Amino acid sequence: MTHKTPTEIAREALKRLMELGLSPIPENYTQYYHEISGAHSTPEINWQHLMRRFCTEWERSQAGLSHLQKILAKNQLLDEKNTGTLAIKMEQLLQKWEKLPTRQVKTSLEETNHGASEEVNCEGWQKLFKTVIRHSIRDQDPPGALLLEQLDGLLNEKEIQADALFPLARDILQHQQELDEKEIKIRKGLQELLQLLLRNVADLLDNDAFLSGQMDVVRQAVQLADNHEELDLAIHRVKEVIFQQGKLKSEVREAREAIRDLVNLVLMSVESMAGENGRNHQQLESLVNELDSTTDWQQIRKIVSKVLDTSKNITKQSIEARNTLIQAKNRLSAAQEKIRKLEEEMESISQLVHVDPLTGTMNRRGLNAAFLRESARAQRLNQPLTVAIVDIDHFKKVNDQYGHDLGDQVLRGMAKVLQDTLRANDVITRYGGEEFVILMPDTTPENALDILERVQLQLGRQLFQAQDQPLKISFSGGISVWQNSCSQEQSIAAADKAMYRAKKDGRKRIYLADQANSST
């Protein structure tokens, strides 16, 4: 085996990134550089050097960079769990900060000419400065109001004292930064509080299946509170689900009221029948007593006739009561069936927040919920859970050359082939763009490979019309098996790596994760 030079490795790493359509950012470049070179560990990180540079840049005042932006960047670094990725992100951040020039702050006011125009200009800047400061001081902020009052006093003096003005301006800026930090802490605290509340509500409503979808969307929206687009999308979906469920809830309410009316009718019928039976029983007892006390044959015939009439009346009432109960039972069964169907429809509407609108497959929210369910089931039953990822070959070229309408047709066609070929209990998810993630419960990787090869065969028979020319589509795939110690992200990443190896080797093929590793 020939050893490649660092230059050859670097060139091949860049080529790999271009083939895979990945951005040439340091973490991607580093990953593939070490993968090609065969190195299994990254170079040792010089944390002392990084921290020294970070402290220097933290204290330095850079032009175009506020202290709040520094705080947000620092918090993002602290959220990173992987030390290697943390070092890379820290290096990127420091390089960005180090390129910024130091903010120039004058230590004294420049001497100006005594012309009238310059005096007016200075007064204008003073007014503008005071206006900006006033708007930056929040309402209900006594310390800020006190600082503003001091600033007004300084700016209203005939000769502005720079030695007094600059420290005060620094105090105002520092006070503003403290308020910003408090806002960040308050927002995070409110997010955590809302998450706790949502978890508690979900536990209380565990039997209310059609609310679970809404709760899931809200929980994930809270986690993405800084992403306005995700929040708007979540709000729109929840509103749509609430509107659809609201219409169905009124029908459920009517059906339940009908059931209550039927129960009342049955109770009234039973009560009426019990009353009639009591009266008939008393009448029969009276006739029996008359029969015991008489020996007159004519009188006996009359008594027997009355007994027969009473018996017929009892039989008639029993038949009527039975018919009433049968009708009530049928109506009750119909009402219960209606409620069941309505609740199923409400639950299916709730699941719309888990569905990709273009393909009709699950979206990432649906995948998260399905993975939790299927991984728990696989662990409980000691069964394999296979994770597969498939990516449509040359999809970007299809979009660029033929337009997004055809691209959408290809995505829908791919989803339909997956749905028609896979089993009912397999979970199909549009993971992003042209990628689909599939969960296959109780399936070995080898069986999953056979299934996906059938999908490849079926997809190859589908023809898409591209400018009056038939277009055939294929995909590349990767397969991994979930382990108890692995997370959802790790399982998908293993399948994803196998899939990219399949693309590198010519596309239109499916690799197992172990197979991809052995061919590296």
UniProtKB/TrEMBL annotation:
EC numbers on record: 2.7.7.65
GO MF, one example: diguanylate cyclase activity
Enzyme class: transferase
Entry keywords, A to Z: Coiled coil
Coiled coil: 172-207, 318-352
Gene3D superfamilies for this protein: 3.30.70.270
Domain of life from the UniProt record: Bacteria
SMART domains attached to this UniProt entry: GGDEF (SM00267)
Pfam families from the UniProt entry: GGDEF
Record's catalysed reaction(s): 2 GTP = 3',3'-c-di-GMP + 2 diphosphate
Residue ranges constituting the GGDEF domain according to the UniProt record: 383-515
UniProt KW Transferase keyword: no
PANTHER family listed in its UniProt record: DIGUANYLATE CYCLASE DGCM-RELATED (PTHR45138:SF9), REGULATORY COMPONENTS OF SENSORY TRANSDUCTION SYSTEM (PTHR45138)
NCBIfam families: GGDEF (TIGR00254)
Protein name (Swiss-Prot/TrEMBL): diguanylate cyclase
Organism of this sequence: Acidithiobacillus thiooxidans (Thiobacillus thiooxidans)
